[in-house]
Amino acid sequence: MQYPPTHLVVMGVAGSGKSTVAAALSGRLGWVCAEADEFHPDANIAKMTQGIPLQDEDRWPWLREIRDWMTAQARAGKSTVLTCSALKKSYRQLLSEAEGRVLFLHLDGGADLISQRMQGREGHFMPPTLLPSQLATLEALTQEELDAGSLRLDISQSPEQLVAAVVHALSLPSGQAPSAP
C-alpha cells in the first residue's frame, strides 16, 4: 500500500509527554522527528523562560516555520513526527497547510498529572507556572479533525501503549516510511 508523506503532530500542553511519545513513534516508524521548540526564535524562548506566556503574534512566525519544514520534508518524500503544542484550532489549520497528510495526536490528561510531570523534569525552559495559561488556551480537537484521522490520546497510558494505539488506529506501516506519491 502506498502512503503519501504523512506528518504526525504530537500536540498538547507542556508536560503532556510530547517529546517522549514523538521519539517512540519516530523510532517505531522510522520517520524523521523534530521538536517544535527548536523552531522558536530566541525572543520566544526568553519570554517563556521568564514565565511570560506567548501571544498569537509570537506564535505565527514560529508555526509558519514548522509548516514550511514539514512541506520540505514531504517534497523530499519523507514522513515526519513532530512535537508542537498546537493549542488552538487556528494553529492546527496553519500547520495543516503543509504538503502531505497532517494528523494531530492530542496527548490529553488532567492538570494534576501534567503539573506533576512538569515539576519532575529538568532543563526545560517552560516553567510549570505557565501550565494554567496553556490549559486556558487549549482548544480540543474538533469532531471534524477527529473524523479526518486525528486522535485524542489519554496520557495515563504508557508511551508504549500510546504508540501502539496510534500505529493501530492509523494503520501505519511500522518501521517503513510511506512512499512519495
From TrEMBL:
Q: Report one GO cellular component.
A: cytoplasm
Q: Which GO terms describe its molecular function?
A: ATP binding; gluconokinase activity
EC numbers listed for it are 2.7.1.12
One Pfam family this sequence matches? AAA_33
Keyword annotations from UniProtKB, A to Z: ATP-binding, Gluconate utilization, Kinase, Nucleotide-binding, Transferase
Catalysis performed (reactions): D-gluconate + ATP = 6-phospho-D-gluconate + ADP + H(+)
Its annotated pathway reads: Carbohydrate acid metabolism
Protein name stated in the entry: Gluconokinase
Which organism encodes this protein?
Answer: Pseudarthrobacter phenanthrenivorans (strain DSM 18606 / JCM 16027 / LMG 23796 / Sphe3) (Arthrobacter phenanthrenivorans)
